[in-house]
Specification:
The complex is a heterodimer. By secondary structure, chain A is of the alpha+beta class. Chain A contains four helices and eight strands. Chain A has a domain of 161 residues. In chain A, the strands form two sheets. In chain A, strands 2-1-3-4-5-6 form a six-stranded antiparallel β-sheet. A two-stranded parallel sheet of chain A has the order 7-8. In chain A, a hairpin with a 4-residue loop joins strand 5 and strand 6. By secondary structure, chain B is mainly α. Chain B has one domain. Helices cover 66% and strands 2% of the residues of chain B. In chain B, strands 1-2 form a two-stranded antiparallel ribbon. In chain B, helix 3 crosses helix 4 and helix 4 crosses helix 6. Chain B is flat. Classes of the chains: A alpha+beta, B mainly alpha.
């Protein structure tokens, strides 16, 4: 290691100078941070929107267009942007504008932190056809299998949520409303099922099986063709 | 700077890689070391972010040291470091959202990496810009090297893969404990053991050489 060198001894600076130098540093730092924030914000928003769109098209196979819907005063109405809350979901339509199903965002406590997910629901068949984890901090190697383990994710591609979804021991799935839990990640698997059950109870009575609202023209068209599907991390 | 005269640029760069390695020798920066080394790619991105923050802060601290009053120097170092960390955080979020998702909580914690503040106080504030940047680059690369050593060992044993490429077929049963926190402590302990053992061996060897030389005289 280097020999410690004493700092150059200068005359004791007044407190005004100390305050000024700190204030100036704070100001410059603040301006720099605002600049970076402004510069990266469009990319970050676009990334998040793209991620959500890809998830919607993934949990609802065969959908060509999507529309954000909000539950306002007893009916679903198309809305633009805004924050995702308990009252929003996404309608998936064929290219003719016929309703296929709904992609429903839901969240709840997992093993370590909130799990946010999206599941696809077909109101006519009363069936869940897909599930995608949007955000989670489950234990790497164990709990993160809720999105890494494709066998577990496949449980949700043909699942009847009525009367309720049950978690069963791995390999014992026998009924259409049962999900094989992940060995070593029972809590995370149960959390996913509980989140969907709760969201289903909340949404099921509100969902008409015919198109509640046609998608706005030229809005949110289908996934870009020629692009490989997003890799599951 | 009069103190820079007896410094050698190459030595100042290389010392961080091995002789004064921030993790294996100084045992600094343990929080990111244990938290994000469960895969090789996480370790490399964390090392890259630390490299950016450390070089940026060392450059600024070394160039501004004349204007930094010593009574508030630590606060100023932290402001400088925190600014660079925020820049790194937003850039990662925009450019590599997938990796940011995995590292998320630990990027802001680079501010609290005592290795970075330590370099400002012990080196950058006392030397010229050129040496400060060389020292920062060496230290950050040494840190990255250590993170990568830990991350690759833990990913290979705990997940059977390296950079997400499976290494052993389906028959390999991953040692899940290696990617959990205990695996981090175990691996770090073993690596430190090897490092210290090598250091002792080297010292003994040098002693023997010295004795042999004395006998021949």
């Amino acid at each position: 290691m280097n020999q410690p060198v004493p700092l150059p001894s200068t005359r004791e600076p007044g407190s005004v100078r100390l305050v000024l130098s700190l204030a100036l540093a704070g100001l410059i730092s603040g301006i720099a941070i605002i600049g970076v924030y402004e510069a990266t914000l469009p990319t970050i928003t676009a990334n998040k929107a793209r991620e959500l769109r890809e998830a919607v098209f993934k949990v609802l196979p065969g959908v060509a267009r999507m529309q954000r819907l909000e539950f306002i005063e007893g009916s679903l109405q198309p809305t633009e942007g805004g924050a995702v809350n308990d009252q929003t979901l996404y309608g998936g339509y064929t290219s003719n504008g016929d309703l296929v199903g709904y992609a429903i965002p839901a969240d709840g406590p997992g093993f370590q932190d909130t799990i946010r997910l999206l599941y696809g629901y077909l109101p006519k068949e009363r069936k869940i056809v897909g599930m995608e984890i949007l955000e989670s901090r489950e234990t790497p190697g164990l709990g993160d299998k809720i999105y890494k383990d494709l066998v577990f994710v496949a449980n949700f591609s043909n699942l009847v949520p009525d009367p309720e979804i049950l978690t069963v021991k791995k390999g014992t799935r026998s009924a259409a409303n049962e999900v094989d839990a992940i060995t070593g990640a029972t809590i995370s698997s149960k959390a996913v099922v509980r989140i969907i059950n709760e969201a289903h109870i909340r949404w099921q009575p509100r969902l008409p099986s015919v198109a509640p609202a046609m998608p706005l023209p030229d809005n949110e068209t289908g996934p870009e063709t020629g692009k490989p599907p997003r890799e599951i991390r | 700077m009069e103190t820079d005269k007896n410094l050698d640029a190459y030595q100042e760069f290389v010392k961080g890689l091995w002789r004064d390695n921030p993790v294996f020798v100084q045992v600094l920066g343990m929080c990111p070391m244990l938290a994000v080394t469960n895969s090789a790619i996480n370790a490399l991105v964390m090392g890259g972010a630390t490299l950016f923050v450390l070089i940026g802060s060392s450059f600024l601290v070394a160039s501004l040291k004349k204007w930094i009053p010593k009574q508030v120097r630590i606060s100023l170092y932290i402001i400088i470091i925190a600014t660079f960390v925020t820049v790194a955080d937003y850039s990662l979020l925009a450019l590599m959202p997938g990796v940011h998702k995995e590292l998320g909580a630990f990027i802001p914690l680079i501010v609290a990496n005592c290795m970075i503040l330590g370099r400002q106080e012990a080196f950058a504030s006392r030397h010229g810009v050129r040496f400060a940047v060389l020292d920062a680059a060496g230290m950050a690369l040494g840190f990255t090297l250590a993170l990568f050593a830990l991350g690759s060992v833990r990913e290979i044993l705990g997940n059977g893969s390296l950079f997400n490429i499976p290494l052993f077929g389906d028959t390999f049963e991953p040692w899940v404990i290696m990617i959990l926190p205990p695996g981090g402590f175990i691996t770090l302990g073993l690596i430190l053991l090897v490092f210290n053992w090598a250091a002792v061996r080297k010292q003994r060897f040098m002693q023997q050489v010295a004795e042999a030389e004395r006998e021949t005289l």
